[in-house]
Every structure is written in structure tokens, then in C-alpha cells.
């Protein structure tokens, strides 16, 4: 392991890239707003250019910070690297990366096709790899960085009755990646952590779960309610912040007590 160097000074206005940030009720969009509230410049990255630009404009108008909306297929390595290069060129110093983009696959394991398995890993794992390798190189040049992988409680306890073997496996990979990045990139002034959300009221949950099923979920939660995207965004905000600089290699369970490690 390389010998650690003194930590660099946190910039007055850092920049964060948030992937998967264009969903109207998603964790990524909430995180973009939460960071901007604290003065971060934000690059909104999602598959659609129009949607990414719309969220970036919304964040800029509400919080008065520089933003950039980028439509990027993060499974395309060249596209991911080009996006990071543009952020580095057009926004203030890149300090944070939130690997939030992901897709699920509620298919029983015995019915999962190789194509579906690859699709889930391409977005959740390979896309994270591309974005992180590009962003970490920029962060290392400044000797300061914060990386947060958005995993899932499914990575820790399995996908339960939903049949999400591919999703759980991909999200579990993100935990191991973050822990290894913490060791390898620490000497470059970069921290790497994960958050593992549980039952969160997002577009995905709202579109796939009945009210009866939501009531069942609440009965399993120690805090007595479904989580919100803002609950998760607040933890991500801390991990990216100046104050979060002594936390690395950790997994923060944001699940209302659904799973206690």
C-alpha cells in the first residue's frame, strides 16, 4: 500500500456526480437536491439527456448552484469517461461520486435468462466500475475524494420473496467494491463507503407494491414507517461531506430496522 499523504483542503464549493438522478421520486434526485442545499455543484447523470437536464435546471433554480445535466449510458465505458471529463472541465473541483444508477429484476432465479442477468450486472456493477475509475483518477490528482455506492438491504439479507437474485448479487458486489476502494484509494485522500437502503418509497416501490404489501412491510420495520428518499440522501450527504472524512470502508444501513447486522 502506498504511504498516505496529508489530506487536501476541502474546496469552498465541491462538485458531486450523482448517477441515476433523473427519476422523479428517486434517491438520486433527492441526493442531488440535498447536496445542492449544502452548496455543492451537482452533475446529474442519467440515461436520458432531456430528463437529466431538467433535473439539473431544477436543482440550479432552487439552490443557486452550478449544475450540469448529462444523458449517459454508464455501461458504455467511453461515454462514462467522457462524462467525467466534461464535469471536471465545466464544474468546480470534483470531490464526490454517488453511484446510484441501477436496475432491478424481480424474476425468480430459475427463470432468469443469461441476458437478464447480464443486463442487471452491466448497469449496477459495470457502470459503477466505469464511473468510479474515471472519477477516482480525477480525485486522486487533487488528493481528495468521496465515493458512495448505493447498494441495498437485499445485498445483506437476500431478495426475499421478490426473486431478485441478480439484483441482490449485483448490489452485494458494490459492497465489496467499496471496501476494497477504501483500502486502495485511501492513500490518495479518497474515502469509499456504501449505503444499503431498505424499504424506501420510490417510483419503483410505488409502481410495484400494493398498499396491502406496503402495510406488511411496515409491520417489519422497527421505526414503524416506510423510508423516504430524503432519509437516504441525508446519509449520503454526510458521507460526502467534510465531516465524513474519517469514515471509509463502511456500510450504512438505512432500513428502519428491517435488517440489523
Describe, in plain words, how this protein is organized in 3D.
- This protein has a single domain (15-200, 232-251), classed as Rossmann fold (3-Layer(aba) Sandwich), CATH 3.40.50.720.
- Strand 4 (94-99), helix 4 and strand 5 form a beta-alpha-beta unit.
- The chain has nine helices and seven strands; from the N terminus they run E-H-E-H-E-H-E-H-E-H-H-E-H-H-H-E.
- The radius of gyration is 18 Å and the shape is globular.
- The protein has helices at residues 27-37, 49-63, 77-90, 114-142, 154-157, 165-185, 203-208, 211-219, 229-240; strands at residues 15-19, 41-46, 67-71, 94-99, 145-150, 190-197, 251-254.
- With 261 residues, the chain is of the alpha/beta class.
- The chain starts with 14 loop residues before the first strand and ends in a 7-residue tail after the last strand.
According to CATH, the homologous superfamily is NAD(P)-binding Rossmann-like Domain
Q: Low-confidence stretches at least 5 residues in length (pLDDT < 50)?
A: none
| Topology, number of strands | 7
Write down the CATH topology. Answer: Rossmann fold
Approximately how much helix is present in the residues? 40-55%
Structural category is alpha/beta
Number of domains: 1
Radius of gyration over all CA atoms, rounded: 18 Å
Helical segment tally?
Answer: 9
Named CATH architecture: 3-Layer(aba) Sandwich
Characterize the overall form.
Answer: globular
Question: How confident is the prediction overall: mean pLDDT?
Answer: 92
Strand content: 15-25%
SSE pattern, N- to C-terminal: EHEHEHEHEHHEHHHE
Strand neighbour order, sheet with most strands:
3-2-1-4-5-6-7
Largest beta-sheet characterization: 7 strands, parallel
What distance lies between the first and last C-alpha atoms, to the nearest angstrom? 29 Å
The first-level CATH class is given as Alpha Beta
Domain Ketoreductase: 14-198
Family: Belongs to the short-chain dehydrogenases/reductases (SDR) family.
Organism: Lysobacter korlensis
EC number: 1.1.1.-
Amino acid at each position: 500500500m502506498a504511504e498516505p499523504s496529508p489530506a487536501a483542503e476541502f474546496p469552498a464549493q465541491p462538485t458531486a456526480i450523482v448517477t441515476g438522478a433523473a427519476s422523479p421520486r428517486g434517491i438520486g434526485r433527492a441526493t442531488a437536491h440535498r447536496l445542492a442545499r449544502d452548496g455543492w455543484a451537482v452533475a446529474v447523470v442519467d440515461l436520458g439527456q432531456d430528463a437529466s437536464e431538467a433535473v439539473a435546471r431544477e436543482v440550479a433554480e432552487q439552490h443557486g448552484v452550478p449544475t450540469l445535466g448529462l444523458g449517459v449510458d454508464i455501461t458504455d465505458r467511453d461515454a462514462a469517461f467522457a462524462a467525467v471529463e466534461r464535469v471536471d472541465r465545466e464544474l468546480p473541483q470534483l470531490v464526490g461520486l454517488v453511484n446510484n444508477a441501477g436496475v432491478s429484476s424481480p424474476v425468480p432465479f430459475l427463470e432468469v435468462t443469461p441476458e437478464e442477468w447480464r443486463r442487471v450486472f452491466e448497469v449496477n456493477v459495470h457502470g459503477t466500475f466505469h464511473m468510479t475509475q474515471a472519477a477516482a483518477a480525477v480525485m486522486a490528482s487533487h488528493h481528495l475524494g468521496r465515493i458512495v455506492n448505493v447498494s441495498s438491504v437485499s445485498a445483506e439479507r437476500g431478495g426475499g420473496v421478490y426473486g431478485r437474485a441478480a439484483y441482490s448479487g449485483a448490489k452485494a458486489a458494490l459492497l465489496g467494491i467499496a471496501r476494497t476502494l477504501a483500502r486502495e484509494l485511501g492513500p490518495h485522500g479518497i474515502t469509499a463507503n456504501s449505503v444499503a437502503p431498505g424499504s424506501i418509497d420510490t417510483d419503483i416501490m410505488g409502481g410495484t407494491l400494493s398498499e396491502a404489501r406496503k402495510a406488511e412491510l411496515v409491520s417489519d420495520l422497527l421505526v414503524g414507517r416506510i423510508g423516504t428518499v430524503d432519509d437516504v440522501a441525508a446519509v449520503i450527504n454526510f458521507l460526502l461531506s467534510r465531516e465524513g472524512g474519517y469514515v471509509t470502508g463502511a456500510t450504512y444501513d438505512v432500513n428502519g430496522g428491517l435488517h440489523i447486522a
